[in-house]
Amino acid sequence: MVEQIIEIIDKREPKQKLLVKNSNISESEFIDCRAERVTFHDISLPYVKVTYADLKHCYFNDMNMVNGKISDANLTNLEIDGANISGIAIRNAGAEQPVTLQNLNIPNSAIVDCNLSNVDLINCNIKGLKINGISIEELLLKAGTNE
Question: Torsions phi, psi of 134, nearest 5?
Fold first, then answer.
């Protein structure tokens, strides 16, 4: 089969609607396009690159992002729910609003070179928790405040 290239150039008005079914659109490019309310269903997007994109109010469900990367992103109010975050690394990040980490199971993990001022651990299993090599569990036992 001969490769076919279809170009739509500068057709912003009137709006163009594309319906692509059962197609291989590998190595396609979308440059300087507006694509609101676009739906991808049952699609394979390995090695996809999205740069300089406005993705506010996007919804991603049942995804495989193994070895993916999000960089230089504004993730304000992003919610990650029911995800396997094994091996995840969050680096050089900050928050202007409080961050909530709830119902996480992250044993044997490390929090390194972080500002944790005014952080509350509430109803957390602290067995084996150490801060700068000091066992918090033992420290609380010595202070007589461990329940």
Answer: -95, 125
> Residue 120: what residue type?
D
Confidence label for 147 from pLDDT (cuts 50, 70 and 90): low
Distance CA 30, CA 39 (A): 15
Enumerate the H helices of 1-147 as residue ranges.
Answer: 136-143
Whether 135 shows a pLDDT value over 60: the answer reads yes
- Cis bond before residue 107 (omega within 30° of 0): no
- Length of the chain counted residue by residue: 147
Stated pTM of the model: 0.67
Q: Please give the C-alpha separations between residue 135 and each of 5, 76, 80, 118, in angstroms, as whole numbers.
A: 63, 34, 30, 20
Distance CA 118, CA 109 (A): 21
Assign 142 to helix, strand or coil: helix
